[in-house]
């Protein structure tokens, strides 16, 4: 039986695509750049806010280095105020988390969303202290797929790689788990598809949150 589960945040625990799309398009519009759909932003996300802005600018045909600095700064300001815009947990996530806690498993969040924003989203959706550990993008920890964040959680919990599951919705998440030497579970209710998950090392792919329980043995 596994002893701990590390979850990605965006596209795994919480449906945040509306907030990301809203903030991204508002930042782009302030510089006369075109807007994009939620489907587009599902391709832009996954490697942190800076990469999201870079991908959006490339899609908009804007390649000037100075444009990135301006749009990124604006996006961060807008997102700091609107990171909870239409954000909600995916159906079945809360019962899953409650069952994991009942089974005495430790639960953590590891996200490429900035640390303060990650903590705010998690606490507003699930309550302060519900998770044993919440970690977003920080300057002292390389972002995923670097496994440093996973190792930090392993150390905090005092557990070994074999005690963990890593759960996420993207290839970045699967690479993160594999780099840390832990079993990976890809989820299909998020932003990416089965093909991407399997190509990047998912040990298991599930369609509904309750299916995760069978992966604990």
UniProtKB/TrEMBL annotation:
InterPro entries: HAD-like_hydrolase_sf (IPR050155), HAD-like_sf (IPR036412), HAD-SF_hydro_IA (IPR006439), HAD_2 (IPR041492), HAD_sf (IPR023214), PGP-like_dom2 (IPR023198). GO terms for cellular component: cytosol. GO terms for biological process: DNA repair. Keywords: Hydrolase. Signal peptide: none annotated. GO terms for molecular function: phosphoglycolate phosphatase activity. The keyword Hydrolase applies. NCBIfam families: HAD-SF-IA-v1, HAD-SF-IA-v3. This is HAD family hydrolase. The lineage of its organism: Bacteria, Bacillati, Bacillota, Clostridia, Lachnospirales.
